[in-house]
Write a structure and sequence with these properties.
heterodimer, A: mainly beta, B: 118 residues, mainly beta
Amino acid sequence: EDQVTQSPEALRLQEGESSSLNCSYTVSGLRGLFWYRQDPGKGPEFLFTLYSAGEEKEKERLKATLTKKESFLHITAPKPEDSATYLCAVQAGTAGNNRKLIWGLGTSLGVNP
Amino acid sequence: DSGVTQTPKHLITATGQRVTLRCSPRSGDLSVYWYQQSLDQGLQFLIQYYNGEERAKGNILERFSAQQFPDLHSELNLSSLELGDSALYFCASSVRPQREWGYTDTQYFGPGTRLTVL
């Protein structure tokens, strides 16, 4: 069964303390992996799309990487405004899932000033 | 601002009632997706429309229905509401549907409608 697992569930960092969030997936034929940021009560905000193993994308303090089994979202020198829930989603290439994303439950990140 | 709009922002109603949530996709986007997000659950995909036609169904209850109109806006109808239907409902849009063997289009989310059933 296609599955996406995010870890840790929650993470608290000090401002400036770099870390990584993990998204591991088990799907048949990866077509794309997405990272979103979600603030409480708000809609998910698109961050990155990764399509193939070895691909990397960066945006400000965030860098997303992809392997054949997992993706990492690296946060360098985080600031309090980076506090949010980070969601990972995967599109599989199987016929049954070809039109919907499989979502992880997210990692809740808190950054202390 | 993603360009996806949803109305209303908040909705409070009673059990047994029916409500309609509205979504306008980003300009140029043909595909609309509906999601439900409860406090203790992740995003649950409900249904997808592309250019007026239903393309995919997720965990959508029979009490729920949706449609996409010629102007591409979409409505999600929730009927015989129960306490457990209280949640955030999000709409997302993308340019094209996610194809089986083609590229993948990014979904852009609206701000959501918070539904409270009392």
